[in-house]
Every structure is written in C-alpha cells, then in structure tokens.
Amino acid sequence: MNLGDVVGQLLREGLSSQTRSRLEHSVGESGLGGLGTGGGLGDLLGSVLGGGSSGSSGGLGDLVGGLGGMLSADSGVGGMSRGEVGGIGALAGAILGGGGSSVKGAIGGSAMALLGTLAISALKNWQAGQGASDASGLGVSEAELSQITAPQTAELCLRGMIEAVKSDGQIAPEEIERIAGRLEEGGITAEEQRFVQTEMRKPLDVEGLISAIPNREVGVQVYAAALMAISVDTEAERTFLDRLAHGVGLDRETVQRLHGLVGAPGF
C-alpha cells in the first residue's frame, strides 16, 4: 500500500469544508509562501542533505527539492522530475489540480512533502525570520527528516486525519461509503480503500495514535494532517487537537504557528 496517495486524495477531496482553503492558505503569502529566501528551511535541508548551504539562496525551491530527494532520489516528488518541482506552488498544484490515477503518485508525494514542510516550519519558527546553516544545532537529524517522509509516517498522518474526523462522533456508514467511492475515483486501490474504511469504523483512539508516533517531528506532521481534515469549530475537535498536541509534546507556540500557516483558528 502507498498510504501517502490516500493522504493526498483526502486532502484533495476535502474531509471538511475548510480543507481546500487551508491548502491554498498554506502556500500563500500568509503561509509557506511568505518564507524568506535566505537562512531558512532551504538552508536547513541543504545542510542536512550535505549540500553546504551557508550563503546559498535557499528558499522554497531548495526546500522542495530537498524533500523531493528524500521522497525519491531518482524522480523527486511523486514521480515528477526535479525541474517540475520548482517551488511550493507545485506541491499545491499537484494536490488540487488534475484527477484520476494518472496523477496519483504526484498527489501522494506532494501531500507528504507539503505536510513535512509545514511541520518543520512550525517546529523551528522559520517564519519569524530565524535561520541557521547548522542543522545539528537545531536538533533535527537527517534520520528525523527522513522519517518525516517515510511510509510509516504517511500511515500515521492518515490515521491522524481519520481520528480527527471521528472526534465529533462516529462516522456514519453512508459517509464512509461516500469517501471510499471518491477514493476509488482517484485511483486508490481496493486494499487502500479497505484500510481507510476499517480505520473509520474503529472507535476513536487518540491515545493509540499518540503512542504510535515516534517523535515530536513526526508528531507535528500528524497534527498538521489532522488540522487539514476538520473545521475546528466544535469543542470536541478542539479537545482532540489539544490532546494530540500534548501527547506528542508540542508547545502552544508551535501549535499556534502551525494554525497560522494553514489559516486555522487558534485556541
């Protein structure tokens, strides 16, 4: 199974009325598109990946290239060439544009890269203008960055989205069938559809999700995926997000930065 594809399709189809607007906000000037070009995430990933970033232009093009390299050393993000992944807008374009199985890989790879980018940005507060050329000084190892794009992380992000939707109550059987149908239209395999349906039918288990998350870096990414999946307009949803944040060790400042990056209400 490639559950990154499922994450991408669910983001594209929208599990809540807010999903699409949050995707658009996250790549705009108030989100990742507002990051500066020097001494930011591009420098961080350049250093971690051995590119030698001090004094480089950095910026989102380098960032996306770095994440693409970790997703697939040969083809970049989701099967697209390095040249096709020229910036953060390409990630959103792959998720929001096109349709069907022909763009399935691009959607999945782009979704995981975008969630990883949001996670690192919120965790390291790059939007506030902080920068460093030494990734080790920021406490982010190459192994941790690779973990952000690993298949296991895609499964955790998918579980986070589903648990978030369940936080308001069990998902109605007809809604499960509707979502499965949209996944099938998007080229998601029968095995992947069954995984989603099984997870949706399970009782809410926030603690089980938290216990499966290996570290705070992955925890931010799972939180970002969950935040994309719900409107955050009920007390149950806010309680779910608060429990998730506390369980994976996210401080309130990191949470508020992530909410700001995707345009979600704070609390």
What does this structure look like?
- By secondary structure, the protein is an all-alpha fold.
- It has one domain (1-262).
- It has helices spanning 3-13, 19-26, 41-48, 59-71, 88-96, 104-124, 142-148, 151-166, 173-185, 190-201, 206-212, 216-229, 235-248, 252-262.
- The radius of gyration is 17 Å and the shape is globular.
- Residues 36-86, 99-103 and 127-139 have low confidence and may be disordered.
Q: Any chance you could write out the topology, listing elements then pairs?
A:
Blueprint: H1 3-13, H2 19-26, H3 41-48, H4 59-71, H5 88-96, H6 104-124, H7 142-148, H8 151-166, H9 173-185, H10 190-201, H11 206-212, H12 216-229, H13 235-248, H14 252-262
- How many domains would you count in the coordinates? 1
Shape: globular
Summarize the main sheet: none
**Rg, nearest Å:** 17 Å
Q: First CA to last CA: what distance?
A: 36 Å
> What amount of the residues lies in strands?
under 5%
The counted number of beta strands is 0
Number of helices: 14
